[in-house]
Amino acid sequence: MADVKTDSISSTEFGKLFFEFKPRFIALAYRYVRDRETAEDLVSDSFMTFWEMHETLPADINVPAYILTSVKNRCLNHLNAQIRHRRAEQDMHSTLTRRLQADVRSLSACDPDLLFSEEIRAILKQAVRKMPKMTRSVFLLSRIRNMTYSEIAAELGISVSHVNFEIRRALNLMRSELKDYLPAVLITLILSSQW
Predict the structure, then answer these.
(1) Per-residue pLDDT for 111 more than 80?
(2) Domain hosting residue 187, numbered range
(3) Do the Cβ atoms of 48 and 25 come closer than 8 Å?
(4) What's residue 1's pLDDT?
């Protein structure tokens, strides 16, 4: 087949050439691209390109060598494209990793007390203003002045159990106001600290 002139090759001769060399060329391409379907596509494309251009090629060209060179070049192009693709993926992965690490550092440094403290304080103050007068007085004496239940009872002239009732009432009102912001455990902690 090597002595076939490219400008006079018939479709029958081309078919014989195709069936004779295709399996060898696929095996060679497969060694490089490691994917059977890709190897077959590269070889078929090389044969098709030859057929489309055969009338414009020099008459004395070695046809199998020409097609094999085309297969080799297509394998190289495919491998280079894979390298570029992998590098792009690695760059993207590195960028994503750096962003995730920055997010982790940011979240680690994030102090929820600082982020929400002003908003929570405003909600707490509003909730205190909504409380009935006795509940508000008991709550403020307990949380602001740090008085014991006995001291509050003595100051307001009520029983310790009434102080206990008013504190529970105040805490329930606070929990209700803050339910969308913090879990109940944190609400209890906030309410038990000075604000």
Answers:
(1) no
(2) 112-192
(3) no
(4) 46
Do 101 and 120 reside in the same domain of the chain?
no
* pLDDT (tens digit per residue) in 7-24: 568 889 999 999 999 999
Residue 138 sits in the same domain as residue 58: no
The model's confidence at residue 2, banded by pLDDT at 50, 70 and 90, is: very low
Tokens of 92: 């993207």
- Taking a C-beta distance cutoff of 8 angstroms, is the pair 67, 25 a contact? yes
Instruction: Based on the fold, state whether residues 132 and 91 are members of the same structural domain.
Output: no
Task: Determine contact, residues 2/64, Cβ cutoff 8 Å.
Answer: yes
135: domain CATH number? 1.10.10.10
Question: CA 52 to CA 184: how far, in whole Å?
Answer: 76
83, 106, 129 - which closes a domain: 106
Provide the terminal-to-terminal Cα distance of the chain, rounded to the nearest Å. Answer: 94
Residues in the chain: 195
Measured between alpha carbons, how far is 192 from 10 in angstroms, rounded to an integer?
A: 95
Residue type, position 34, single letter: R
Residue with tokens 């490089």: 32
